[in-house]
Structures are given as structure tokens and as C-alpha cells.
Amino acid sequence: MKKKFDLKKLYLALVMLFFYLPIVYVVIFSFNDSKSLTSFTGFSLKWYQKMFETQPMMESIYYTVIVAVLATAISTVVGTIAAIGLSKSNRIIKELVTQVNNLPMLNPEIVSAIGFMLFYSTFNIPTGFMTLLLAHITFCIPYVMLSISPKLRQLDDNLAEAALDLGCTPFEALYKVIIPQIKEGIISGALVAFTMSFDDFVISYFTAGPGINNISTYVYATSKRINPSVNALSTIIVIVVTIVLILTNVVPMLRERKKKNEKIA
Question: Can you give the pTM of this predicted structure?
Fold first, then answer.
């Protein structure tokens, strides 16, 4: 009996090819000996060497990483506290703040970017590293709160009250009882915040000052000329992200398997 042609599998394969073929193409041509982006003339690591020797590119990497790390750390702390406080508020305030919180995520980025730019120009705030960082913190907080809110809805309110009755201070109840219960939401919110900050272009373009470039704005500035070093940079980012994804998915699986083996033993 002939197997029935599976159109869904073909569609999935085409979608995967559409998404991942450009990435594979970039990785392959990052090792190309020539500047050509159409013909592979030989294997070489010179574009990686040139990338590390190009000061503006290394500065863009530095600003990207430092802004993403700081924005993630600050927005995670602020977003976590705000989400916990909001969960204890009355229904009207909760609904109002939730709608305001969702607004930056629903707005097109260009609207938020122009809003930041007008705000800074209105109050004569010179754009630079701090304005870029503040903008990133601001648009990362809603994503953190959105990730934590479902976990807080699942949390038993009696746990914190029981901790207080047993002698914990409010701060001890926060980090000993509430935070451990919602840590998955905090971690996922932090990962989303880091990704959004690391990847951002539009808001960074309008809020960074002269001489301040992250990877996105640097690549845009050099996009009008062929620069294979960008392929090398993209390949390194792909490798780092792949390693992080493998670790975040494999390590929990290994822990679960170890726990099951210990229970069986």
C-alpha cells in the first residue's frame, strides 16, 4: 500500500528551510576567503580576525552586551516587584495597570522610539549611553511582568501569610516563599528581556547618541557596503545562542532523568 503524501510535513519542511537556510548561508560565507557573497573561493578565518581588529565593531558588541545585561537585570528586578505588587492590588487598579503595561508591546516600535526621542528632546536630555539604557529598561519591563503574572495567578496567597505568621519579615517572605514559587516566570521574563534588548534596532537608533552603536545600528550603518566581518559576527552570535539553547533545554532534562533514576534506585 502506497503511503499517502503528507502535505503538512512538506509545508513544515519548507518553513524550516525558509527560516534556517539564510542562517546557514551566513555561517558558510563567514569562512569565505574573498569578499564575494555568491561564490565560495576558499576557507579562511581572516574575517574573524578582521572583526576583532575593527574597533567600531568591537565597541558595538560591548555596548550591546552591557546594555542588554544591565537592562535585563534592572527590568527583571523592577518587573518582578511590580508584578507582585500588582497581584495584591484591587481589580480596578490591576486591570488599569495591565492595560498600560500591554501598550508598549502592542505599539509599533517606531511609535515608542519617536516617543522616547521627543521626550529626551523636550527636556533637553543629551542622548548617549544612559538614554539608550533607560529606553531599553522601559520597554523590557512589560515583557518581564507579562511572563511573571501567570505564575503569580497560580500562587496560593496563603503561603505568604503563613510565612508571616511563622515569624518571617515581609522581605524574608518575598525571597524565601514567593520568589522560589515564581522563579520559572522570572527566568523566562529575563530571557525575553535580554533577547529584546540584544536584538533591538528601532528604539536604539532613535535614543543612542553620537558614537554609541549597538550591533543592530552598526550593521545598519555598514549595510551599504560589503562587509564579510558582519557574517563572522553573526556566526558567533548564532553559535552562542545555540549553545545557550542547548544548555537551557538539555540541563533540565538531565536533572529530571537523574531524579527519576534516584527514585528508582
Answer: 0.84
